[in-house]
Amino acid sequence: MSPVGRPLRPRGKLLQEDARRHHRSLLIQQLFREGPASRADLARTTGLTRVTVSDLVGELVGEGLVEELGAPAGARVGKPPTLVGLAPDSTHIVALDLSADDRMSGAVVNLLGQVQARHELEIGGARGADAVELVHRLASELIAMTDRPVLGVGVGSPGVVDAGGTVVDAPNLAWTDTPLAASLAEALGLPVFVANDANTAVLGEHTFGQTGDGGLMVLRVGIGVGAGLVLEGALLHGHLAAAGEIGHVTVDPDGEVCACGRRGCLETILAAPRLRRRLAEPGIDRDAVLTEVGERLGATLAPVVGTLNIHELVLSGPTELLDGPLREAADRVIRERTMPVSSAGLAVRTSTLGDDVVLVGAAVLVLSGQLGVS
After folding, report:
1. CATH architecture of the domain with range 92-200+357-371
2. What are the start and end residues of each CATH 1.10.10.10 domain in the chain?
3. Contact at 8 Å (CB) between 203 and 227?
4. Statement: 19-86 belongs to CATH 1.10.10.10
5. 196 neighbors 228 (Cβ within 8 angstroms)
6. What angle is formed at CA 323 by the lines to CA 321 and CA 325, rounded to 5 degrees?
7. Splitting the chain (374 residues) into consecutive groups of 10 residues, what average pLDDT does each group show?
8. How far is CA 75 from CA 68, 78, 79, 82, 260, in A?
9. pTM of structure
């Protein structure tokens, strides 16, 4: 995970003890974002010397992360440059999404975020230690589904998760100070990265979605409700790693009791299980309910948009709930309650990555942690 203030994507030379690792990240990042390039092009775009680039590319080719691709099509007369590119299936990533209310999902993902295999396990009411055991089982079974080396394991978990991968508090799974990353790493013998599912989703959208360069907020709706934010190129963690816990902002003091123990949190009206139950009640006007929830969501988010000047607000979760009346109402209320300068360029949309946004984001946790790219 990138600390507050550190750009997610390295952009320039760094003269310090870990310069070599940083320079490797620069090269991998360039190939990751822009595709195959010659050594000369890599030197020009990264600002590194040709000698350094040649040395590092040789190292990466030897490790299998980068491969020689030959000359570009239409090369001119004379000795053409040799292109190099990432070898996307040289190593795989195991990604887990724990955000659903009824199942834990996982996938084997390559270095370009492409899903190679899928697997899931029903939660069946598992909580506490039983839920942790289920995560271990899912990760182990996914590792057995690939014949490639595994770069690491990424996990998007509900709740507050600290920088070390300990789930500080996840009421819906009855986890408190649960060292999920440490227990998985010990059991699997692999690097493990765990983050809040909304933070994981925003990383997936930032890296593989269709986002612009402005502030990005992903509102993740699943078993709970949370938000992830990327501001000026850095993931926002906040004090005690609790940035984005908007699901536990009170929107109705007389509302239902929340899993956190308080009453009337946003989660009590927007979390997928609760919203589905309400929509299933006899005689319910579906569009009216979704519009009402969208208006409450818009009123909750308007101060955030106005304060941070968010450029894109992405709703991530069940499309049949979030797209349509709910999204439209939230969009309208945000614009009604903020100055035009704050919301004129705002895009409110659902995720282009669909149900895979947390899985792909979990892969980004590993890419960032192990290769320094995102």
Report:
1. 2-Layer Sandwich (3.30)
2. 19-86
3. no
4. yes
5. yes
6. 85
7. 51 63 91 92 93 94 92 66 93 95 94 96 95 98 97 94 93 93 97 94 88 84 89 84 88 91 94 94 96 97 93 93 97 96 90 90 95 87
8. 16, 8, 9, 10, 63
9. 0.84
